[in-house]
Amino acid sequence: MTTPPEINFRDTDLDAIDRAAGRVAVLIGAGGKLDAAGRRVNKLTRGALLRFAESEAFEKMKPGEVRSLAWPSGMGAEAIDLVRLDARADIEQARKAGAALAKLRNAADMLVAAGNHKHADQIAFGLALRSYGFDTYKTDAKPAKGAVSVMCAKPEEVAAASAAHAAVAEGVFFTRDLVNEPANVLTTSDFAARLAAMQELGLEVEILEEDALQKLGMRMLLSVGQGSVSPSKVVVMHWNGGKKGDAPLALVGKGVVFDTGGISLKPAAGMEDMTMDMGGAGVVAGVMRTLALRKAKANVVGLVGLVENMPSGEATRPGDVVKSMKGDTVEIINTDAEGRLVLGDVLWYAQERFKPAGMINLATLTGAIIIGLGHENAGVFSNDDAICGQFLKAAEAEQEGAWRMPLSPAYDKLIESRIADIKNTGGRPAGSITAAAFLKRFVKDDTPWIHLDIAGVASVKSDTAYAPKGATGWGVMALNRMIRDNFET
Ligand code: BES
Ligand code: MN
Ligand code: ZN
Questions:
Q1: I need a labelling partner for 353 at 20 to 30 A (CA). Which of 3, 300, 380, 467 fits?
Q2: In this structure, which residue's CA is closest to atom 17 in ligand 1?
Q3: Is the model's pLDDT at 75 over the cut of 80?
Q4: CATH number, domain 169-486, options 3.40.50.10750, 3.20.20.140, 3.30.2000.30, 3.40.630.10
């Protein structure tokens, strides 16, 4: 697993700046004001820092941006990284500053002089998040990155705050690794094994195999995986950190390890992107990991449906009718609308078994949500304003884009079937909403529920503020915060 860098926090020691051999980062506030570390570097470099701080180049920098001065005279450092960050900077700006520094990390050590900045922990968090790289399959040996230390006021307190951030960063990295992993490696069995390994962290993990799913009547889910040689599985992860007997929050994830479309085969161009079609399950796994690492005082159950959607002589055909665990029959119009089939059965199972206080599902469900919202926002659908509000607030605080979409009964008629109770597609209009309307059939009226369509945000083609191109880990931070703020005892 890719692990976040270990960051060490210590008291400010100006003499350490003279001696540092790697990179030294200093913060410069609005108006070019230097702190003690900045003044020390300025003195060592005979005024270079002040000239920069008074320059137009500095004035034009945005909060959180960095400029580097290489091989400065008067110091042992190989570079000085000048970070524009005001004392009054908010959390987002502090994280961005850390992320900008992460991009400059190399084999040399990095010493970040955060002075008495109130968000020293957030600088470190941004630095950790952006230090991710997925190079498992790059055979050139990459030199190890240097150590990171942060000089700050009250380092013990900052280190304590950072321990909670580290649990989040590790959950985010776990999600990103799962989403980036190719489908010949991350099979349904390999995925289940990686989840089972989390028992070491105190999670209870159960794996339901095909015979058990058959007995439960999850024919809808099984119909998706029946063309693949990889066995379908449902994995249930329990984190019981809350009061005994309190109804849990249920997180449910779509885990299609590869989506060819099945008999309704997808076009070749871009099909390789469908290794990320387990993104919903990846986020559920990342959140569960974070909850366990930080020993959250909440009861949360994570359920993922792991299947592979392949064409074969045994695959489901368009026109087939299958029965769901709930009992509703479904006409399969398009075998590429498979995510809703997987989720419908797992959502029903989650409610029957756990009577959850709330239920949130995540899925790379529709291409249509990308047409609607692009790669900036996930689609949010909910039957309950209260729980939806809690999520939107947490997502906003974590800067994870989320936008609520309508879910009114008027759309239900688009998925009426001629021969069965419902059909699995509603045509092109409102494609994301009819997918949500399908899921809603498997949600009981008294279960507060959110469906997150993350097709546009789970994995992207360009770098984001906190991740290189590829898997983002979108949602781990928002869900962790939502649980922390609303579901802990
Ligand atoms: N996994 C796809 C959705 C998707 C598309 C995710 C692009 C990420 C990026 C999903 O299973 C799918 O194929 N949906 C179809 C539904 C249609 C057949 C009703 C789609 O969106 O085209
Ligand atoms: Mn599909
Ligand atoms: Zn899919």
A1: 380
A2: 337
A3: yes
A4: 3.40.630.10
Mean per-residue pLDDT, 389-418: 98
Per-residue confidence band for 143, with pLDDT thresholds at 50, 70 and 90: confident
Confidence grade of residue 141 (pLDDT, cut at 50, 70, 90)? confident
Of ligand 1's listed atoms, the one at least distance from the Cα of 266 is 13
**Residue holding tokens 């999520």?**
391
Q: What residue ranges do the domains of the chain occupy?
A: 7-153, 169-486
Does the structure show a pLDDT above 90 at 418? yes
Q: Which of ligand 1's atoms lies nearest the C-alpha of 425?
A: 19
Query: Ligand 1: which atom is nearest the Cα of residue 424?
Result: 19
C-alpha 455 to ligand 3 mean position (Å): 9
DSSP character for 413? G
Average pLDDT over residues 143-172: 97
**Number of DSSP helices (H) and strands (E) in the chain, helices first:** 16, 19
Ligand 1 atom closest to the Cα of residue 264 is: 18
Task: Indicate yes or no: pTM above 0.90.
Answer: yes
Within its chain, how far is the Cα of 141 from the centroid? 28
CA atoms lying within 13 Å on the CB side of residue 351: 21
> What is the pLDDT averaged over residues 80-88?
97
Tell me the CA–centroid distance for residue 250 and ligand 1, in Å: 24
Contact by Cβ (8 Å): 173, 195: no
- Residues of the chain with pLDDT > 90, as a percent, come to 99
Domain 7-153 shares a fold with domain 169-486: no
Q: Is 160 helix (H, G, I), strand (E, B) or coil?
A: helix
Residues ≥6 apart with Cβ < 8 Å to 436: 379, 381, 405, 407, 451, 453
Residues with CB under 6 A from ligand 1: 259, 277, 334, 336-339, 364, 366-368, 425, 431, 455
Among the bound ligands, name the one nearest to the CA of residue 276.
1
Q: State residue 1's pLDDT score.
A: 86
Instruction: Output the CA angle 430-325-329, nearest 5 degrees.
Output: 55
Question: What is the structure's pLDDT at 81?
Answer: 98
Residue 57 has pLDDT above 90, yes or no: yes
Question: How confident is residue 102, by pLDDT bands cut at 50, 70 and 90?
Answer: very high
Fold of 7-153: Leucine Aminopeptidase, subunit E; domain 1 (3.40.220)
Residues annotated as part of the active site: 266, 340
| Ligand 3 center from residue 446 Cα (angstroms) | 28
Structure token digits, residue 118: 């109130």
Distance 357 CA to ligand 3 centre (A): 28
Of 365, 375, 428, 461, best ligand 1 pocket probe by most atoms within 8 Å of the beta carbon: 365
